[in-house]
Amino acid sequence: MAKQLLISLRITFILLLLVSGVYPLVVWGISQVAFKHQANGSLIRNAQGQVIGSELLAQGFTKPEYFHPRPSAAGNGYDPTASGGTNLGPTSDKLINGVHKKDLSPGKPDPADFDGVADLAKAYRTENGLAATTRVPVDAVTRSASGLDPQISPANAQIQVARVAKARGLSEEAIRGLIAENTSGRGLGVLGEPAVNVLKLNLALDAAKK
Amino acid sequence: MTFIGWFQILLFLGAILALTKPFGTFMHRVFEGEKTWLTPILRPVERVIYKIGGVKEDEEMPWTTYTIAMLLFSIVTLVVTYVILRFQAFLPWYDKTYMTTPMTPDLAFGTAVSFATNTNWQAYTGENTMSYFSQMVALTSHNFFSAATGIAIAIALVRGLGRRSALSIGNFWVDLTRTTLYVLLPLCIVYALVLCQQGVVQNFHPYGTVKTLEGASQVIPGGPFASQEAIKMLGTNGGGPFNANSAHPLENPTALTDFLQVLSIFLIGASLVYTFGLYVGNTKQGWALWGAMAFLFAIGVSVAYIQEARGNPLIAATGVEDKASVLGDSGGNMEGKETRFGIARSALFATVTTDASCGAVNSMHDSFTPLGGLVPMANMMTGEVIFGGVGAGLYGMLMYAILAVFIAGLMVGRTPEYLGKKIEAFEIKMAMLAALVLAADVLLFTALASVSHVPHPAAYWNTVSGTANALASANTNNSGPHGFSEMLYAYDSTTANNGSAFGGISVNTPFWNLTQGISMLVGRFLMIVPLLAIAGSMVKKKRVAASAGTFPTDTPLFAGLLIGVVIIVGALTYFPAVSLGPVVEHFLMHSGKTF
User: Fold this and answer.
1) Which of B203, B340, B362 sits opposite A195 (nearest CB)?
2) Do the chains contact at B249 and A87, CB–CB below 8 Å?
3) Does residue A13 share a domain with residue A110?
4) Are A24 and A62 in a shared domain?
5) How many CB atoms neighbour CB B493 within 10 A?
6) pLDDT-derived band at B326, boundaries 50, 70, 90
7) pLDDT exceeds 50 at position B29
8) Could you tell me which chain A residue has the CA closest to the CA of B371?
9) Do both A108 and A203 map to the same domain?
10) Which of A39, A191, B356, B460, CA to CA, is 20 to 30 A from B12?
């Protein structure tokens, strides 16, 4: 027993050095040379060279001239220090019927102040000038698992085209072209779903304006 | 449901099938100390480890010494992790601005137990609790250790079944070292680099704040996480650096990484089944188990995919499109799912992660439809034997195989045999002990949490965001049957050493950390110790020649019987509890009721 205890202390020490020291540092060393951009968080810079975010992390957009991401449950929205989903179940009244209250005292979020799916769908229709009977793409009114989903479905992007075109004075055709450029297809042709990167698309829109 | 969705599921199963034999053969060579292509590079390292450790390589152990070595190693590493976590504020890369969750003794205990038992249940939010040092040293090391321990035990049990009239079942330290060195590390290095190439971070930069395009400020985290992510998946650990786990774009950035992640969950578990066949001298014995596992996997993934693709009628009623559209939008229940994965990959991941004892998630199980969420729950209730956790899946399935031959023996009135060895009262008692203890732990703790008041004062035992909850059940995020499901899932997950969650429930309080910690210890060690006892008893037995009355265990008939035993003994024990949760919620959802 004492012999085995001694071995376990010594083995723990040497293996710890190997799997928590050598291994991550080897991966770090190689990746900092070979995949520097990705290893450091896939950061995006604006025309002035300032870092404005990561192409993998969603940012909040509310202005009509930008495409809007999916709603977020990460912290107070799109907060990478508190990633996560709503964790509300399929029969949650809050998830379906929660209503956004506008008259809250500042800085004191009411836990009941939550946009349910019905409320989000209504806002989405108003924002994009859709009829009350138009069916809304499901990803536009549901929160992602991470709260940082950088992408939206192509269907969701197409519906937002008219609003963005009007706000920017650009042709819908030009915007559709930019959507196509910022859409990633299925991995290896079969894996996952096609999706549009919102931040990259919005950056492309800003660049197109000039 | 789409054709391409089903195709992705088939592609995954095909890839596992293709990898089982080559990788299983490789592991057999490693554990028997035979030469592999890695030997010239790694053999010197292996010798150094034995020298420093004081391990005599060719010294074999009886099952009792093997068990003691395994338990001591688990305790030592558990203590190391606890100490690092408690002192993380004084160790490198600790940024107190962002580490807002205090590392209390109960949280450090729960977390250390959770990683030592290969559960990786996380009561905390990684990005605001754990420093890079804690992630890289305290947690990543356990991802290797608990995985290697599980594999070592499976190999020991298999030796017990394969050898005859022997006393020893191998050397724990040698099995542990070889697993780490030859199986886990080389794969992890390659895998981590692929993940990194796709966008998983691997740096030591402190969190930085940027000004977004619309002028808000956003914090961008970093961390040495590609290396952690690789072993998190390959070792079926599942505890990711970020709260959103494999749904987080910095952990699982593309559909390709997602494909590799599900593949790496099953790779070792499936291949070990073939290794088992090689050890007992008949690979058909291994394929019979493989077939039973694949069948149970197929049922689970089909139910999950169908249910999630059908969507939530309550959401559809608000005028939301939940049918697949020509534009490529996958429709279905997208609450708590990522756009790049869609429904098929989310359902596949949820099934695979709970078939195995992984517990990583790429979507929020809490927001699944009731029957979609039942699939992960039921998978864990089988004891995670559907390919299963690394090592744990195989030894769990062998426990069921022993029960299956026993039941077959009862039906024809003969002494049951498995692999030419007589199964006697001792083996059955040990197998039933493991099966019953797990079920009792899940059900009793769920009952306790559902009805009981926490000990007085509630302010100490159970305070969530400033509110002292006198009822343990008040910590759920949902009301009605779904709230009960959250608690059932919690104890199911910890007892099965899975670690995934119906994540809405708040479990970072002393009451929950401690009861969950106990569940994890019971689930791990009251499973392993009886199984090592079986190994110790079986290894001594003589092999009897097969006769006309022997029930063959390498046939589809046996695989069918095994499936029946897994479902009846494993999952049906929980039927009443499941009826109160997901089943009743399913009917209420379709009748339009909300809570």
Assistant:
1) B340
2) no
3) no
4) no
5) 30
6) very low
7) yes
8) A90
9) yes
10) A39
Question: How near does any CA of chain A get to the CA of B593, in Å?
Answer: 7
**Residues of chain B neighbouring A35 (CB-CB closer than 8 A):** 193, 196-197
The pLDDT tens digits for A8-46 are 999 999 999 999 999 999 999 999 999 999 999 999 998
DSSP H or E segment with residue B343: helix B342-355
**Which DSSP string do the residues of B111-130 spell out, in sequence order?**
HHHHHHTT----SS-GGGT-
> Do residues A107 and A145 share a domain?
yes
- The domain of A185 spans 43-207
Distance of CA A173 to the CA centre of its chain: 25
Query: In whole angstroms, what is the distance from residue B562 CA to residue B568 CA?
Result: 10
Compare all CA atoms of chain B with the CA of A68 and give the residue at the minimum distance.
Answer: B214
Q: Does A12 share its domain with A116? A: no
Other beta carbons less than 10 A from residue B459's beta carbon: 12
Of A11, A81, A90, the CB nearest to B312: A90
The number of folded domains in chain A is 2
B506 pLDDT exceeds 70? yes
Checking ipTM against 0.90, whether it exceeds it is yes
CB-CB contact of B361 with A146 (8 Å): no
> Both A50 and A135 in a single domain?
yes
Residues A69 and A161 both lie in one domain: yes
Instruction: Tell me if the pTM is above 0.90.
Output: yes
Mark yes or no for CB contact B201/A38 under 8 Å.
yes
Whether A201 and A107 share a structural domain: yes
- Burial grade of B47 (CB within 10 A; 0-12, 13-18, 19 or more): exposed
Question: B120-139: per-residue pLDDT in tens?
Answer: 999 999 999 999 999 999 99
